[in-house]
Specification:
Layout: H1 2-6, H2 9-13, H3 26-34, H4 55-61, H5 65-76, E1 78-81, H6 84-91, E2 104-107, H7 119-135, H8 139-164, H9 167-173, E3 179-182, H10 190-201, H11 206-220, E4 226-229, E5 244-246, E6 252-257, E7 266-268, E8 271-276, H12 284-306, E9 318-322, H13 329-332, H14 348-376, E10 381-385, E11 398-403, E12 409-413, H15 417-420
Parallel strand pairs: 1-2, 2-3, 3-4, 4-6, 5-7, 6-8, 8-9, 9-10
Antiparallel strand pairs: 11-12
Helix pairs in contact: 3-5, 4-5, 8-10, 8-11, 12-14
Length: 422
C-alpha cells in the first residue's frame, strides 16, 4: 500500500487522467487513507524516532486537492513531533493552515548524538583533524558536544514559543488545540539534567526558565483541556528558582515526576496535579518528605515574590498530589487493570492497603493545606491521594504506575483518551 501511494499508482488506477480528482467517492478515499495513519505513541513507549516522520500521508497531500483535504486532518489532528521548529516552519505562512486541524500536540526533545559532534561542528572538525583524530575524542569532549546540542535545541524552542506566545498568534495557529504533552513519549533524559546543572554553575540560570515561561504564556492563551510535562529538567519545564507561575487555565496541569525530581512547581490560579511515577523500590518515607519539601519551596517562592502584597482568591493554590507506595498489579485487581473508563475492581488486600494510604495521605494533605492557608491568607487547596488512584492524563494517556512482579515500571496506555479529548 505504501509503495502504491508513494508512486501515485493507486491514484492513477482510479482517475481519468493525471492531476484530476480521483473518480472514486470521497468516502472510499477517506477509508483508504486512514490505513496510512500511524498509531500515536503512548507515554514512555520509547519508539524509534522514525515514527515522527510519516511520509505516506505527507505524500498524499501533494497528489491533489481532494487527497490534501482528506490527508491533512489525518496527519495534523494529533501531532507528535521531536522537531517543533521544523513543524512550524513548514506549516506557517501563505495558505498553509494545516495546524488549524490540531487538537492534541505532543512535543519531544530531539535525540542527542552521544558519539559524534553535531551538524556543522562535526563537519568542520572532521576537515581540520581528520577521521582518526575526530574518532578518538575524550569523554569530556563528547559531553561538550552534547551540551552544544542542548544549547541549540534551547535556542530553537525559544524562537518557537516567543513567536507563539502572542494571544492572536497562538489562537490563529492552533485554534482547535485542546491538549499539550511535553516529553511524554521518552520521559526523563539525563543530558537535560546535566545541561541544567552546567548552566547554573556558569551563572546562566535565566536560560533555564525563559522557554518554560514562554510556553506557559502560550498555553494561557488557548482553551486547553489538559497539559502535562514529564522531563522536569528540560527547557520547557524548568522554572528556575521561582517554582511557581500564574495560570488562567481552567484545565489541569499535570507534572509526572519520579524519585529524581527536584524542581516541582505550581501554577497558582489554576489546577495542578503532581502524579508520581517513582519505581516500586523507592524509599517512600524519604520520597514523601521530598514531595512535602517541594510544596514548601513553591509556597515560599510565592511569598517571597509577593512580599507584603495581598494575594487574591484567584491566585490561590489548587494542588492534587498522587504519591504513595503501590503493589504489583497481579495482586491489586480482580480481573486485571481497568480498560478505558471501566472502574477498577480491587482485591481485598489492595482495598485494605488503599484505605490505609487514603487516610494517611489525606492527613498529610490537610496539614499542608493548613500551612499554605496560614502563610498566604487565602483558601489554598491541597489534596493528597494514593498513587493507584491517579486519574488518566488526557494530555498523554498515562494512568497510575503499574508494577510487574519483577518491579519494572510500566505505564498504562489508554487509547480511548484520544476520543475523550475530542
Amino acid at each position: 500500500m505504501n509503495m502504491f501511494i508513494n508512486n501515485c499508482s493507486l491514484v492513477r488506477l482510479f482517475t481519468a487522467s493525471p492531476g484530476r480528482t480521483p473518480q472514486l467517492p470521497r468516502e472510499i478515499w477517506v477509508k483508504v487513507l486512514r490505513l496510512l495513519q500511524t498509531p500515536i505513541p503512548g507515554a514512555l513507549s520509547y519508539p524509534p524516532r522514525s515514527v515522527f516522520r510519516r511520509p505516506e500521508l505527507r505524500n498524499c497531500m501533494l497528489v491533489c486537492k481532494t487527497f490534501h483535504s482528506i490527508a491533512a486532518p489525518l496527519l495534523y489532528t494529533h501531532i507528535f513531533t521531536d522537531n517543533l521548529p521544523l513543524l512550524l516552519e513548514t506549516n506557517l505562512g501563505g495558505r498553509r493552515l494545516n495546524l488549524r486541524h490540531t487538537r492534541s500536540l505532543r512535543v519531544e526533545y530531539r535525540e542527542v548524538h552521544k558519539d559524534e559532534p553535531w551538524l556543522i561542528s562535526a563537519y568542520e572538525d572532521l576537515l581540520k583533524e581528520g577521521w582518526t583524530e575526530w574518532s578518538e575524542r575524550t569523554d569530556e569532549e563528547l559531553e561538550e558536544d552534547i551540551m552544544r546540542q542542548c544549547d541549540a535545541e534551547v535556542e530553537h524552542l525559544r524562537y518557537c514559543f516567543y513567536f507563539l506566545q502572542e494571544r492572536t498568534t497562538a489562537r490563529f495557529v492552533f485554534p482547535r488545540l485542546r491538549t499539550v504533552a511535553i516529553s511524554s513519549i521518552y520521559g526523563v533524559q539525563d543530558h537535560w539534567q546535566r545541561w541544567r546543572e552546567a548552566r547554573m554553575e556558569e551563572g546562566e540560570e535565566s536560560r533555564l526558565y525563559h522557554n518554560a515561561q514562554a510556553l506557559n504564556t502560550f498555553c494561557n492563551h488557548l482553551d486547553l483541556d489538559a497539559f502535562c510535562v514529564r522531563d522536569l529538567a528540560g527547557p520547557l519545564a524548568s522554572l528556575g528558582r521561582d517554582r511557581w507561575t500564574w495560570s488562567s487555565l481552567p484545565c489541569v496541569r499535570t507534572l509526572h515526576y519520579d524519585d529524581d525530581a527536584d524542581d516541582l512547581y505550581l501554577s497558582y490560579g489554576g489546577r495542578v496535579r503532581w502524579a508520581c511515577d517513582a519505581p516500586e523500590d523507592t524509599d517512600w518515607e524519604s520520597f514523601t518528605k521530598t514531595t512535602i519539601f517541594q510544596t514548601e519551596k513553591a509556597v515560599n517562592a510565592r511569598k517571597k515574590e509577593m512580599g507584603l502584597c495581598t494575594i487574591s482568591s484567584e491566585g490561590a493554590a489548587n494542588l492534587e498530589i498522587y504519591c504513595s507506595p503501590s503493589i504489583p498489579s497481579e495482586e491489586m485487581y480482580e480481573d486485571g487493570p481497568p480498560v478505558g473508563s471501566d472502574p477498577p475492581r480491587y482485591t481485598a488486600k489492595a482495598e485494605q492497603a488503599l484505605t490505609f494510604w487514603r487516610d494517611n495521605m489525606a492527613s498529610v494533605g490537610a496539614e499542608l493545606q493548613e500551612i499554605y492557608r496560614e502563610k498566604s491568607g487565602v483558601l489554598d487547596r491541597i489534596r493528597w491521594y494514593p498513587s493507584p488512584e491517579t486519574p488518566i492524563c488526557l494530555a498523554c494517556g498515562s494512568g497510575p504506575p503499574d508494577y510487574s512482579q519483577e518491579g519494572a515500571r510500566r505505564v498504562w496506555i489508554v487509547n480511548e483518551v484520544e476520543s475523550a479529548s475530542r
